[in-house]
Design a protein that fits this description.
The structure holds two protein chains of two kinds. By secondary structure, chain A is an alpha/beta fold. Chain A has ten helices and twelve strands. Chain A has helices at about 30-40, 65-70, 85-95, 105-110, 110-120, 155-165, 190-195, 210-220, 230-235, 240-250, and strands at about 5-15, 15-20, 25-30, 45-50, 75-80, 100, 125-135, 140, 150-155, 170-175, 200-205, 225-230. Chain A has an eight-stranded parallel β-barrel, surrounded by six helices. In chain A, helix 1 packs parallel to helix 2 (about 65-70), helix 7 (about 190-195) runs parallel beside helix 8 (about 210-220) and helix 8 (about 210-220) packs across helix 10 (about 240-250). The two termini of chain A are about 15 Å apart. By secondary structure, chain B is of the alpha/beta class. Chain B has one domain (about 5-195): Class I glutamine amidotransferase (GATase) domain (Rossmann fold, 3-Layer(aba) Sandwich), CATH 3.40.50.880. The radius of gyration of chain B is 15 Å and the shape is globular. The chains are: A alpha/beta, B alpha/beta. At the A-B interface, helix 2 and helix 5 of A face helix 1, strand 8, strand 9 and helix 6 of B.
């Protein structure tokens, strides 16, 4: 059976892995290649690297560290941050990434998703969505890597999920901003609602605090994978313990 | 040993090369038939659409090279699919080294693409599977697949069973990505380097 994926997310800023709370006040948590190797050894099913400095500053991901990661990793990984053209994506995939994830540039230019899917196949194309509950609906925010640029795009999350798939997204990573970094659990309600609109793999992001949060999001929202950062980086939860707990609660997991 | 990787343009070549490097074998990447002709073992990787993959092979004359290939050949993902007669993906004619047609995964299977770690089952006795557990997890990313047949070495099920690994004489192939399948994938690539068809 297809296993649910546990996906540590490494936010990268200026070549270092960082983690902020609610997208601000980032602190350095370690070296990219060291952390990548450690997570693969500990049982991560996949890694995501978000270069959060790339998009707001109008520059894209450096390919040097992408190649360094590709050399040591024997699990898949995805790179996100500032990928604004087919050529940007081609460089990152050529450096050894398995997938590229687009977020703010796709909101600015939705045709980018079509162009990427045509060139590389939709299985390479992940659309990351930063979704914020504003009291009435879930809305898509852009340029969230920096508090001074982060803003509401006016799009509803459910509309953007539908459009992104129609354009060629092969996977959706839904980051629930209200929960991000708080370790109070995933936004199961939002993820379950979006699951119904998502025929491609859906990855939950934002809010993981304990093994029970992962079990809930897999069972109640039927997501394909769960992404988390601070619980892993800060040693709150070991991947091996998490997987054992999930298996015990009946979730299909890769040993 | 001269290990070479066919440059299919749209493929994720680097991760395949790095995976062999982790096994201590440096592979060369080339799109030129005269280079690839020198290979003792040849890898045909691939991601992306079948039509683009076939166009890339034809543009460089690799389709002709592969039709007469006698030494071990490893097709990976799209590289497996291109070995068949045709693909349902855009009605694409393929290399025809293996009989049959690639078809779309059933849309009742779950989210498509089939993306993630799934288990192998019904493993056959073959050197490519030396050291591989009967229910090992490997990493898949695909929307099309080959139906199981007499050449199937291992199956996987997503909606319905499909060929996860194939062997016919010197032609070997994985629908999953051994370069991204942890220790299991590394062992399969090691087996490919050792296999004597």
């Amino acid at each position: 059976m297809l296993a649910r994926r546990i996906i540590p997310c490494l936010d990268v800023r200026d070549g270092k892995v960082v983690k902020g709370v609610r997208f601000t006040n980032h602190e350095v948590v370690g070296d990219i290649v060291d952390l990548a190797r450690r997570y693969a050894r500990d049982g991560a099913d996949e890694l995501v690297f978000y270069d959060i400095s790339a998009s707001p500053q109008g520059r894209r991901v450096e390919t040097r560290w992408v190649a360094a990661v590709a050399r040591v990793l024997d699990i898949p990984f995805c790179v996100a941050g500032g990928i604004a053209s087919v050529d940007d994506a081609a460089d990152i995939l050529a450096a050894g990434a398995d997938k590229i994830s687009v977020n703010s540039p796709a909101l600015r230019n939705p045709g980018l998703i079509d162009a990427l899917a045509r060139r590389f196949g939709r299985q390479c194309v992940v659309v990351g969505i930063d979704s914020f509950w504003d009291g009435t609906d879930w809305r898509v925010h852009a340029l969230t890597g920096d508090a001074s640029t982060s803003h509401d795009t006016g799009r509803r999350t459910k509309d953007w999920i539908t459009e992104a798939q129609a354009r060629g997204a092969g996977e959706i990573v839904l980051n629930c901003m209200n929960e991000d970094g708080r370790r109070q659990g995933y936004d199961v309600r939002q993820l379950a609602a979006m699951r119904k609109r998502c025929a491609v793999p859906l990855i939950a992001s934002g809010g993981a605090g304990c093994a029970g949060d992962f079990a809930s999001v897999f069972k109640e929202a039927q997501v394909d994978g769960a992404l988390a950062a601070s619980v892993f980086h800060k040693g709150v939860l070991a991947i091996a313990d998490l997987k054992q707990a999930l298996r015990a609660s009946g979730v299909e997991i890769r040993p | 040993m001269r290990l070479m990787i066919a440059d299919t343009g749209c493929a994720n070549l680097a991760s395949v090369r790095y995976a062999f490097a982790r096994l201590g074998v440096e592979a060369r990447i080339s799109a030129a038939p005269e280079d690839l002709q020198q290979a003792d073992r040849l890898v045909l990787p691939g991601v992306g659409a079948a039509a683009a993959g076939m166009a890339a092979l034809r543009r460089n004359g690799l389709d002709e090279l592969l039709k007469d290939w006698q030494r071990p050949l490893l097709g990976i993902c799209l590289g497996l699919q291109l070995l068949f007669e045709s693909s349902e993906e855009d009605g694409t004619p393929c290399l025809g080294l293996l009989p049959g047609r690639i078809s779309a995964l059933p849309d009742t299977a779950g989210p498509v693409p089939h993306m993630g770690w799934n288990t192998l089952h019904d493993l056959q006795d073959h050197p490519m599977l030396n050291g591989i557990a009967g229910d090992a997890h490997v990493y898949f990313v695909h929307s099309f697949a080959a139906a199981p047949d007499a050449h199937t070495l291992a199956r996987c099920t997503y909606g319905k069973p499909f060929s996860a690994m194939i062997a016919r004489d010197n032609i070997l192939a994985c629908q999953f990505h051994p370069e991204r399948s942890g220790a299991t994938g590394a062992r399969i690539l090691h087996n490919f380097l050792e296999v004597q068809p």
